[in-house]
Design a protein that fits this description.
By secondary structure, this protein is α/β, with parallel strands linked by helices. Helices cover 35% and strands 14% of the residues. It folds into 2 domains: 1-73 and 184-215 and 250-337, Rossmann fold (3-Layer(aba) Sandwich); 74-178 and 229-236, no CATH class. The chain contains 12 helices and 9 strands.
Amino acid sequence: MSYQIENRRYTGSKAKLGKWILGLISQECEGETFADIFAGTGVITSLASKFFQKLIVNDFLQSNNIIYRGFFGEGKWDRKKLNRLVQSYNLLNKKNFKENFFSKNFSGKYFGKIDAKIIGYIREDIEKKKPRLTEKEYCILVASLIYSTDKIANTVGHYDAYIRKEPKDNIFILDIIEPINTDKKFKIFLEDTNKLAKKIKADIVYIDPPYNSRQYSRFYHILETLAKWDKPKKLYGTALKPETQEDTTSEYCKTKAPIVFQDLIGSLNCKYIVVSYNNTYESKSNSSKNKITLEQIEMVLKSKGETKVYRKSHRAFSCGKTNFSDHQELVFITKVR
C-alpha cells in the first residue's frame, strides 16, 4: 500500500470538495500560475497541478510543509532504496524496543505502548540516516511516518484530545507516500500567509483560511513534533501539548480575523482570488463558530473586483458538539480589477 496525498484525517480537508472547487476555478479563471496559500493537506494543490503549469503551495505548519516537499518537491530519490528501508522497519521485532521520547509521552493515550516505541525508534533512525539520504528521500520518509502514525492514532482525527479507552496496540505498519510525478513547477513555502502575500505573484490565488478559534498547530501538535523532532522538554495538560509559540498561532483564529483578512486581500498581486469558507455560525461549541462573517468576506472581495458566490451543502467535520442542518461550503471568486 502507498499513501496518496488525500489519505489524511484533517479538520477542514477539501478532499471531498476539491473537484467541485477546481471545476469552478476552471470555469471562471484563466492563467498558468496557481497559488494555494493556506494549503493544509495539499489536496487542492494536487488537483490544481493537472490544470496549471506553475504552483505555489504554502502552510506555516512544519508537518504540512514536509508533506508538500515529499509529494511535490524537486530532487532525486531512489524508490528501491526507500522500499527496502521501509520493509526493514516493518520486519523489526517490535517487542524488544527501549522506551524513547515518543513512547514515554504518548503511549497508553494516543498510541499503544509497542506502537509508540516503534514510531519513536523510526523517527530517531530517520534522523540518524539523514546524512545518507537526499532531501527528497528524507521528506518522503518523514511524511510517510506522519501518515502511518496518524492512521492508527487513538483520536477522532486531531490531537486536541485522545479517546478515553485503551488504544489498540501492535498495529503500526509504515507505508510509503506516493510522490506526485509531474513536469509542473512547484514553489513550496513555510510562511505566515499575510507576509507571503506581499512577496508572490500569481494568476489565481486560492484562500482557505482557518474558520474558527481552533489553532491547527495545537490540533496537530504530535504531528508537528514528528516533523520537527524537537522533543519538547515540557508537555502540558491532558492533551500533552508543548508550550505555545507565537509564530505557530494564526490570527485568523482570533477576533481580529476580519482585519487580517482585509490586509491579505489588499496585499495580493493576482488576476483572480478564490476564497473557501463555510457557514458554521450556529455551532453549539464556541470554538467552532466562524470568525469572519460571509458579509465581511464578500464586502472585502467586492472592493477588489466583481465577485461571484457558489454554495454546496456537505457534511462537516464534527467533534460531537457541532451539529446543525444545511452545512454549506461557500466559494467566492473575484476577478480583480
